[in-house]
Structures are given as C-alpha cells and as structure tokens.
Amino acid sequence: MRRSFIIFPLGYALGVFAFANSFARAGTGISLDGYVEQVRAANPSLKALRLRSDAQKERAAPAGTWDDPFFAIGPDEVPVSMGEPAVLRFQLSQSIPFPGKLGLRQKIASFRADAAESEAETGDRTLKVLAHQIFLRFFFNQRARALNQQIRD
C-alpha cells in the first residue's frame, strides 16, 4: 500500500509535464483521449506495475515445484600425519515437501499474481482519472481566460 503513495503523485506530476509539453508545440491541438493515451504511454510507474504483474504471473507455475537438490563434495577427515590418506565426502540430498504444500505455494503465487494485476489496473485507472482532471482543469482555465479577455475588450 505504501507504493501507492509514491506512484500517484509521480503520475500526477508526469501528467502535468506531458500536458504542458503537448500544448507547448505550436499550433497542435490535442483531444482528451489523445492526452490520456500520451500520459499512459509515458508513465514509468504504470509500466513498472505492468512488468511486475507479468513477473508475478511467470512465478506462479514454478512455485509448485520441488526445491533444487543439494550436492556437495568436501574433505571429511583431515589427515594428521603425512602417511594417512585424505577422505572425501560426497553428499546428495533432496528435501521432500509435506503433501499439499506445493499446491498451496502455487495457489499463493497465483493470488499474488492476481493482486499485482489488480494493482496495475488500479494504477491505470487512477492515472486516467488524474489525466482527465488535469486536462479539464487546463481546458476550463483556458476558456475562463479567453472569456475574461473578451469581457475586457
């Protein structure tokens, strides 16, 4: 939840920046839908949320597999005198999980993937709302300035 406090102000600032850049170009008008698409395409937080969601989806299937086996080679008894041979120990072990544990791990990973996907969708919707608000505020301020200018003239 703490990430959302960082993402939304960044999205808001990026939206203002993208909006200012789009209007800074001479003579180009922009529609609300075009502006929202520009903001969505240029927002790094939204891209990061989508990539995180994709990564969580990829982690779901391997979560239900057994752990890797362990293999080790090392000296077992260090010879005290020069005449004694060194003894090497070979070790191979595999942990066998309790029945049902792998299925639960996989379910947990799929729930995390669903949560990450929901978080990405929430970030996308929030960014859309912020972009709409910025666009409309700018539009209304621009119209108010034009009307004030007409009243003055």
Task: Describe the structure using short key phrases.
single chain, 153 residues, mainly alpha, two-stranded antiparallel sheet, 2 strands, elongated
Strand content: 5-15%
Counting H and I runs of at least 4 residues, what is the number of helices? 4
Q: Main beta sheet, described?
A: 2 strands, antiparallel
Q: Could you tell me the number of beta strands?
A: 2
Note poorly predicted spans.
24-28
Helix and strand element order? HHHEEH
Short note summarizing the structure:
By secondary structure, the protein is mostly helical.
Strand-helix topology:
Layout: H1 2-24, H2 32-42, H3 44-60, E1 70-77, E2 87-93, H4 101-152
Antiparallel strand pairs: 1-2
Can you offer a commentary on this structure?
The structure is a single chain. The chain has helices spanning 2-24, 32-42, 44-60, 101-152; strands at 70-77, 87-93. It contains four helices and two strands; from the N terminus they run αααββα. It is mainly alpha-helical and 153 residues long. A two-stranded antiparallel sheet has the order 1-2. α1 crosses α2, α1 packs parallel to α4 and α2 (32-42) packs across α4 (101-152). It is elongated, with a radius of gyration of 29 Å. Helices cover 67% and strands 10% of the residues. The model is unreliable at 24-28 (pLDDT under 50).
